[in-house]
Amino acid sequence: MTDTNISELRIDTLEAARIIKRLSNHWKHKFEITEQHEITTIPFSEQSRVFLSPHQDYLLAKIETTENERLEQLEHVVISHINRMANQEFPAHWIRA
Q1: 70, exposed or middle or buried, with CB in 10 Å at 0-12, 13-18, 19+?
Q2: For 66, how many CA atoms within 13 A lie in the half-sphere containing its CB?
Q3: Residue 40 sits in which domain range?
Q4: Which of 39, 40, 58, 77 is the most buried (most CB within 10 A)?
Q5: How far is the C-alpha of 77 from the C-alpha of 70, rounded, in Å?
Q6: Quick one: what percent of the chain has pLDDT higher than 70?
């Protein structure tokens, strides 16, 4: 069985829901995005998924992947797209579990 790598990022913002909605609309042509219980799931591949959830004063992004070599790349892709959808630069301090 392959280990799953997990990386999480908390972004302080009052616009988490708006950012996630814009990101979902941006990626929906490329990925089969699902939304359930206020968690948006973006399947980048069979081995890698991103979960986005809005909270009152922050956005939580979580990456799960079995592709060890892709984790850093996915972290970069996710934060760069969040920044673009928010029209601002957030600090990215990913925490790996």
Answers
A1: middle
A2: 7
A3: 5-96
A4: 40
A5: 10
A6: 98
